[in-house]
Amino acid sequence: MTKVDILIMGSGPAGYTASIYAARAGRSTRLITGPQPGGQLMITSSIENYPGFVDPISGPSLMDQMRQQAEKAGVEIMNDVTASVDLSSNPFVCVGESGTTHRCNALIIAVGACAKWLGIPGETRYRGSGVSACATCDGFFFRQKDVAVIGGGNVAVEEAIYLTNFAKKVVLIHRRNELRAEKIMQIRLMKNPKIEVLWNTKTMDILGDGVKVTSLLLSTPDGEVERPIDGVFVAIGHRPATSIFDGQLEMDKNGYIVTDKTSSCTSSPGVFAAGDVCDPVYRQAIVSAGHGCMAARDADWFLSQ
Hints:
Distance between the termini: 25 Å
Helix content: 10-25%
Number of helices: 6
């Protein structure tokens, strides 16, 4: 495979935005889509907070428009999954599961991070139809509804508090008898009259009517009970897709790629990171798109030296 100036791994908002800016800078640009072309937004049914769209747009439609814009800019898009990378010398070498070898002088990593799921019945079936892993993305759709948040860390507590802006009632379900969240967050949670906490409770199943979520099957200290609910937010953490970079890039204890505080530069010169792969805090499409712009500009400057 011929070498390109900039190779981009990942096809979410960060990857596509990076590719558009890279191509418009006159750099030969190739984008490897990864296992799910379009990224996590492909399972988001409706987006109302992405600037530029007065009416809601579906995740797949938004990502299709980004793909078309990238193609129009001259980006070479390849449906492949990166199996291995060698960052020991430049040009960098990436090998896809297809057997294709990609070589580049600058690499932008935008492979994202996946929400951790419970792995229980009903979770996959109703994902996008009442089951979500992002309160900021989907909380708006549950105005005056009863929703549940599953988890006990900072993310779960933050999402529960955030959801009270929309929901009629929020039930926080935790399998232990104490939360892992910061104390100040726990105090805010307990003071909120809209929030109920179920301790020592495990979610066994997510039930529905075939179209949407209707209830949860819970295992409590008093036995199994079915709890009516309109929406379920799983908040047990995220897992960045960074295992193939182990030993080659600096990462934090949770596997997120560490970047320079003022840029997208990683610990390896010529390698840049954008989006959820280096963002354990915001995890929003618009933030990822901004990261993609930064990474492309940084890669262009690197190649100009």
